[in-house]
Design a protein that fits this description.
alpha+beta, binds arabino-flavin-adenine dinucleotide, 8-stranded mixed beta sheet, binds P-hydroxybenzoic acid, FAD/NAD(P)-binding domain, 393 residues
Length: 393
């Protein structure tokens, strides 16, 4: 089989790219190793930047998002037992974010792809991507028990941090920059109505906590835990008690979360990672296949989206004009934005989390930074601009 663009991975990056190419009349084949149910229920991100929302709308993939998503015009920061709101539109000239889970974005894109897009194969395990420096790179994969090959004009690795497409970039030209963090997140999904209107990010000497949501009836909550924490050591009541303790503020001593049955519980390690370059010959990397951010800045899913928005623009330009100039600029164009998001995610993570080894001096620096963020419009604007998303491309 041959296709113009072979896409490895059917997560948000691969699915959005397939949609953008289909709308421009460019054929693709998407190979996803897992089954549809697994991909659609995998709990991950919850916040869409303005640019991601705009791209989903332009791609005709936003009808349910616009009906069920929740537009948020700010977040609340809690620290030193006080609370402060960051007003996005006032600080960014009108930008906001959309609360709409990655699971729902993936469901919407899969439904569209199966309805009228190019082939989307589930249970297709890609073994290797070969011939990146030739004219016809080849994807080798196993599907329905049989070894298969897909020849392509271009291959895009959208197969995440544990994917294989990255290996198509020879080690001799590939550099990976990374950082790990001395803590993780314990995340829960609870059938409990959020008692807050916007996301709450809390710094406390007990550790970080985040209150997010999936709907008016479902809460999504996270708390900082030591690395290698076993979720079984955190029964539901212990989680609720700890979250209440970390969100406590003097202005409202009775403030408590609404509790309810916990339907999902998992520990997520924190990692920053960037692989350069994001292109080698006719193979491109996008999303988590190229970079990872700690989720504190809500950038992971949105970086995946911005990569494929830039790449689709470049592939369409080449398809329509024969010029490869945007393809040649792809890696540098994306990496400028990737490193900006890496820094913002690092900043949010190290400012809001309590490193077990940090000194009281370090804690005073964090509180000084948080006070600056909530007392200076200039400092708050830098947070708001990064959180709602910097311009793409
Ligand atoms: P993905 O990893 O989503 O998709 C890659 C796809 O490729 C997967 O479906 C995989 O099955 C498939 N694949 C892998 N190897 C393959 C192979 N050899 N052959 C075929 N298919 C293959 N981001 C946030 O902004 N906020 C969050 O709260 C947040 N929470 C997260 C929690 C977890 C546990 C994880 C792992 C990530 C989280 N992220 C979060 C980041 C996450 O949302 C990613 O940024 C986003 O999924 C990136 O999308 P993709 O690049 O498409 O990669
Ligand atoms: C989420 O809703 O899952 C979420 C929101 C904001 C973050 C991270 C995760 O920074």
């Amino acid at each position: 089989m041959h296709t113009t663009v072979g896409i490895v991975g059917g997560g948000p990056a691969g699915l959005l790219l397939a949609r953008l190419l289909r709308n421009a009349g460019i054929d693709s084949v998407t190979l996803e190793s897992r089954d549809r149910a697994y991909v659609e229920q995998r709990q991950r991100a919850g916040i869409l930047e303005q640019g991601t929302v705009d791209a989903l709308r332009a791609a005709g993939a936003a009808e349910r998002m616009d009906r069920e998503g929740m537009v948020h015009h700010g977040i609340e920061l809690r620290f030193d037992r006080g609370l402060h709101r960051v007003d996005f539109p006032a600080l960014t000239g009108g930008r906001s974010v959309m609360v709409y889970a990655q699971t729902e974005v993936v469901k919407d894109l899969i439904a569209l792809q199966l309805a009228d897009g190019g082939p989307l194969l589930f249970g297709a395990q890609v073994r290797s991507v070969e011939g990146a420096d030739g004219d016809r790179p080849v994807i080798r994969y196993v599907h329905e028990g049989r070894e298969q090959t897909l020849t392509c004009d271009y291959v895009v690795g959208c197969d995440g941090f544990h994917g294989v497409a990255r290996n198509a970039v020879p080690e001799s030209v590939r550099t990976t920059y990374e950082r790990t963090y001395p803590y993780s997140w314990l995340g829960i999904l609870a059938e409990a109505p959020p008692v807050y209107d916007e996301l709450i990010y809390a710094h406390s000497t007990r550790g970080f906590a985040l209150a997010s949501m999936r709907s008016p009836a479902v809460s999504r909550l996270y708390l900082q835990v030591p690395n290698h924490t076993d979720p079984a050591d955190w029964p539901d009541e212990r989680i609720w008690d700890e979250l209440d303790a970390r969100f406590a503020v003097d202005a409202d001593p009775g403030w408590k979360l609404e509790r309810g049955p916990v339907s999902a519980k998992a520990v997520l390690p924190m990692r920053s990672s960037v692989t350069e370059p994001m292109r080698y010959g006719r193979v491109f990397l996008a999303g988590d296949a190229a970079h990872i951010v700690p989720p504190t800045g809500a950038k992971g899913l949105n970086l995946a989206a911005s990569d494929v928005i830039v790449l689709a623009r470049a592939l369409i330009h080449e398809h329509n004009t024969g010029s490869a100039e945007l393809l040649d600029a792809y890696s540098d164009t994306c990496l400028r934005r990737v490193w900006r998001a890496e820094h913002f995610s690092y900043f949010m993570t190290t400012t809001l989390h309590t490193d077990p080894a940090q000194s009281p001096f370090d804690t005073r620096l964090q509180l000084s930074q948080l006070t600056r963020l909530t007392s200076s419009a200039h400092a708050a604007a830098e947070l708001a601009e990064n959180y709602t998303g910097l311009p793409i491309g």
